[in-house]
Amino acid sequence: MSWRWLVLLFGIAVGPLFTTDAVEAAGKPSAAELAAITERGRLLAEYDAAAGRASDAVLATHPKEGSSNRYIARETEVGWVVDFGRLNATGDKFLIVREAIQSGSMAQFTVRSFEPAREDTGWNLVAAKGAETAMRDFHGADRPYNLAVLPARDGGMYVYLYPAQVKVGVYPLGADVRYRISPDGTKITGRRQMHRTIIEYASRGAAGEKEAGGYHTHVLSDVPEDTDVLLVLIRQPRVPEFVGAGQYMYTIDTDGKITVADRPK
After folding, report:
1. Are 125 and 132 a contacting pair, CB within 8 Å?
2. Most buried in the list 67, 79, 80, 130, measured by CB within 10 Å?
3. Cβ-count burial of 250 within 10 angstroms (0-12 exposed, 13-18 middle, 19+ buried)?
4. Segment 172-188, tens digit of pLDDT
């Protein structure tokens, strides 16, 4: 799993973090708004799992060092496909050297190698450009980060940069940004800092302690974030997360569904 985030460990300088591009919620959020956060969080969790499993499968094939510096995952009708490669020198092709294809459960990926590299001018190319665009703008904590690129429903893409898990049983949350990138991958059209600082959740389940759930508060918005849902879905054992934001208290259940109630006075 470590190889996965090492390819994404770029020179991140500790600096000021971004302000959100979203307007603070006015009034209690609608069921549709919360459902959209759940949907993005679930897809992000699937992307995270696919990228991790595919990276393990590719690492087992002993790829040539330096042959790949980017992975792009995409969901297909038959499961997840993760392509490993790099942009060419002119930036008009994505060169795929390994492709990991889900072959059953999320734990099973079959790897294909390409020599010479397979050229792609479709989604992999614009997604890789979008990743580069976001990374040039990003300033986060001085630690390894994961990156995910997801298509947006109304065009363009979302690029997420969020802290990588580097210790078994410890799940980081915070100092993360979601970018909205133009369809060609070259322009930032929106930027949302989801959390300001990093919280490390250490699982107590392995020690035999029963956990009712986690809790944190938001200071940047009045709604939960996509990575809050991600945390719930990847944390083991899986427990709910309670989020205090503005005047509301949210519960993110173990399936990612969000419910809201007025915050106790």
Report:
1. no
2. 130
3. buried
4. 999 999 999 999 999 99
